[in-house]
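Work through what follows:
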Amino acid sequence: MPPFNVSRDHSGDAWFRLGKLDVTSTVLVVLIGAVGVVASAFAPVLYQVGRFVPAEVLQGQVWRAVTWPFVDGISLWSILTLVLLWYFGRDLENQVGRRPMMSLYVALWAILTVVAFVVGLAMGGGAMAGLRSIQFIVLLLWIAENPRRPFFFGIPAWIVGAVLVALQVLSYIAIRDLAGLASLVVTFFVAAVVARRFGLLSDLFWLPGRRGSAPRIRQGGGVRAPQAAAPRTPRAARAEQKAAARQASDHERMDALLEKISEQGIHSLTPAERKELEALRERRRKGR
């Protein structure tokens, strides 16, 4: 039996190790999905009682809201879904870290569940099962992060992404599935906004979701009006200048590292560059 160890390499890449396997957020999701596919193959009833159906959830079968990503019929597509999620999800996780990636997976599950429930009750449909929808969004996020990376036959990733989205939209239009089309549009937009909050899609400046300073709340309720800034001392002014200079330098260095990833892939970074990128992202999140 392979040993089960908590990761102690301090790299932040894995939650724990199973033998020689580093179990990252993506690997954990894929492993649970694989177990669900195999279990559903041996016990098909698991698929029937575990898939998401809005009407059934409304009647009290609330567990379906949690179980649907991990029950799926075994097929070539279900296996391909797990492989693609492992490949592209792992690449994104190397960029943002295990905790933001796990938060992103949870957010995608929540977005898909809520949108399918609301649209399903309003317009019909909304049934879901398996990780295919989550994998598709992760793939599109990877493409948005690496639009010029060569894909199949050297085709740029952004062209592949555009074709995949167009085919998905056309398939909904062809069968007159307005509920599916509405779910697709809403899910894509909300997922992009959420992904931006976790450190992805930083080049899409038009997209909302950047972290800003929250308004201060008075104890008695209401928002405190902004106060006039106090006069700065020369020391404070010099400190602000240094902070601004370091922030500008951080942005330039991060742009250089992200450009290298975009052109050559995440694996082109040295261990030192990966640690540097993590530190830069952490400083940006904290607004330092």
